[in-house]
Amino acid sequence: MTPAAIFTLSVIALAILLIVKDVAPPDVMLFAALVVFIAAGVVTPEAGLAGFGNPAVATVGALFIVAAAIRSTGVLESASRAILGSGGSLGRALLRLTASSAVLSAFLANTPVVAMGVPTVTSWAKRHQVSPSRLLIPLSYASILGGICTLIGTSTNLVSHGLLQRAGMRGLGFFELSAIGVPCAILGIAYLSRVAPRLLEDRVPVRTVGEDVRRYLVELRLTDPSPLIGRTIEEAGLRHLPGLFLVRVERPTGIISPVGPDVRLLSGDLLTFAGVVESIVDLRKFDGLTPTTSDRPPDTSSWELHEAVVSPGSPLVGSSIRDAAFRGRYNAAVLAVHRHGERIEGRIGDIVLRPGDTLLIEAAQAFSRAFRDSPDFYLVSRVGDSVAPRRSRAMVAVLILMAMVVLAALDVVPIVVSAIGAAMAMVITGCLRLGEAKRSIDWSVLLTIGSALGIAVALESSGAAEILASGVAGAGANFGPLGVLAALIVGALILNALVANAAAVAIMFPVAVSAAGALGLDPRPFVIGVTIGAALSMSTPIYQTNLIVYGPGGYRFTDFTRVGVPLQIVLAIVCVALIPLVWPLTP
Predict the structure, then answer these.
(1) Which of 522, 528, 524, 530 is nearest to 472 (CA)?
(2) Are 277 and 335 in contact (CB under 8 A)?
(3) CA distance 323 to 182
(4) Per-residue pLDDT tens over the stretch 33-44
(5) Which of 94, 364, 393, 570 could potentially form a cystine with 431 if both were Cys, beta carbons 3.0 to 4.6 Å apart?
(6) What pLDDT is attached to residue 88?
(7) How many Å apart are CA 150 and CA 579, to the nearest integer?
(8) Percent helix, strand and coil across the chain, each rounded to 5?
(9) Burial class (CB in 10 A: 0-12, 13-18, 19+), 46
(10) 224: buried, middle or exposed (CB in 10 Å: 19+, 13-18, 0-12)?
(11) Whole-number Cα distances in Å, 467 to 472, 502, 515, 565
(12) pLDDT per residue as tens digits for the range 72-100
């Protein structure tokens, strides 16, 4: 093993370890690793940074805009409501939900598909007295399955497409992956609609219609002037609020808990309530009760409640609400934080935010529209309301999407041209404003893709790819080429649980090509296996769509593993069996 190979593998291993330890987001760590490779001379600056000029990066960026336009015009919202309908059993609802989610995600980024589906699914669950935890993981996983059916279904496919072209091979056809993606999706949908509900628990108790499944802990300060000052809890009307419970009253003389009906309120009292989100809205009618955020502006009479899920690439991750200067950054106040099915206690300003945290925010009405496409958050929505979509442009948006798909599928123009053209058409026709288009692009994903492509070059040029390929070939040698294919798929599955799936395919691509070359076989089926394996992010919640459903479903980490790993094993077996039939292993 050469020193360059040892150095390259060591840097990549360290980057993966730091990502797993949440030291920094994947995009930052991967870019840092690329910079190290360039500084150390493993790759030249031109070769290392060439990934950012790969058509895959521009294509993914354009598809973010297209998906945002489809969402902005209300197409996804209308589709999600029509899919679940108003009746039916859980099994039938799951079948409709997972099948439609897979179909939509084959042509749109799965993040907006899942984000728009969550409110509808939660509402349906309330009406039918079903825990949302039975539906939301299947929704997320179905969107992942749909992504492996077409070239534009997920960024993983586009990265693989770009790597094939850079290596001098034919890129992926628009529907080429359908030969393996569709059978996997059909099998996965059957699993998610029949088996998954039995593996999932009612993490959040089934509540009556109209209640929200998320319970928050909210701190409010009683300030002058207020008619509540001097009154008892009973007299102030804080005793029997539906869906709310006054946990404690804190004042300089001490903490009062439990709080009796005769406790008299004083100016400056800190009141802590536990309750469901719709009930917390009722607290706004009490004059003098204000959030404890120290930098809250004086005039917030027109503010409303919003919910937002923190994304992995958000600058808020790893910082406390106070240190992140949330009020100054977003002109909003955080009232409460909900994490992984549990409410977070303690001072709001001291809570250190993590990916997947659901924030209850008080802000101006425009907050949801301003940040709904921001990479800082997923699933930004107003409580008890929604941002009015541009329904008059819905048909225009659908026609533009269809034109993009047809032009790319018939190979009339390259996929990057059709995607950018569709993004421009969405803005020109008014389906999406220019500012919204800019905000809709998840720059952390583009940074991850560009960095991962550069790391793939480092693996090849240092000889590390050949070393890894020898290890993979050795692991599957006893079972021949099929064993090697299985080992590559498993390697991609393990990597996608640790790093971004685009990085997983970029790291495994040169390994797959080298392994095929060592065996004298066609590299394409091995690349297909790696592409599928890297896209099936189902074993942990560390993936965009999984994080979106984490909080609303009240899930625990193990729920994703319990449902996802068996599905991954089944799909890996299907891939090993079917890939050689579609893409022969011999040249």
Answers:
(1) 530
(2) no
(3) 47
(4) 999 999 999 999
(5) 393
(6) 62
(7) 16
(8) 60, 10, 30
(9) exposed
(10) exposed
(11) 9, 21, 9, 28
(12) 787 776 776 677 665 567 788 889 899 99
Mean pLDDT of 249-268: 86
Provide the 8-state DSSP code for 388.
P
Alpha-carbon Rg for the chain, nearest whole angstrom, is: 25
What is 310-368 written as a DSSP string?
A: EPTT-TTTTSBTTTTTHHHHHSEEEEEEEETTEEPPS-GGGPBP-TTPEEEEEE-TTHH
Could you give the CA distance from residue 529 to residue 575 in angstroms, rounded to a whole number?
7
Contact partners, residue 41, CB within 8 Å, separation at least 6? none
- Tokens representing residue 108 in the block: 């749109």
Only one residue has tokens 């290392």, namely 48
Cα–Cα distance measured from residue 537 to residue 97, given in angstroms and rounded to the nearest whole number: 19
Q: 555: how many CB neighbours lie within 10 A of its CB? A: 25
Residue type, 567: L
Cα–Cα distances in Å, from 162 out to 8, 57, 155, 475, 574? 22, 9, 11, 28, 25
**Torsion angle of the four alpha carbons 413, 415, 419, 420, in this order, in degrees rounded to the nearest 10:** -70
SS3 255: strand
Give residue-wise pLDDT tens across range 170-228: 999 999 999 999 999 999 999 999 999 889 888 753 333 333 445 566 778 888 888 88
pLDDT tens digits, one per residue of 316-374: 888 888 888 887 888 887 877 877 656 566 667 778 888 888 888 878 777 877 787 77
Q: How confident is the model at residue 279 (pLDDT cuts 50, 70, 90)?
A: low
Q: Are strands 358-363 and 342-343 parallel, antiparallel or unpaired?
A: unpaired
Q: Please, are residues 110 and 150 in contact by the beta-carbon 8 Å criterion? A: no
Residues with Cβ within 8 Å of residue 246, at least 6 apart in sequence: 233, 238, 239, 259, 271, 272, 273
Cα–Cα distances in angstroms (integers) from residue 333 to residues 226, 304, 321, 552, in the given order: 21, 10, 9, 21
> Which residue shows structure tokens 């990916």?
355
Q: Report how far residue 110's alpha carbon sits from residue 322's, in angstroms, rounded to the nearest whole number.
A: 32
DSSP sequence for 372-384? TT-TTEEEEEETT
Structure tokens at 213: 């499944």
Q: What domains can you pick out in the chain, each with its CATH number?
A: 215-382 (3.30.70.1450)
pLDDT tens digits along 117-170: 887 787 777 767 788 889 999 999 999 999 999 999 988 999 999 899 988 999
- Name 584's Cβ contacts closer than 8 Å, sequence gap at least 6: 522, 525
The residue with tokens 């809205």 is 281
Q: Residue 227: what residue type? A: P
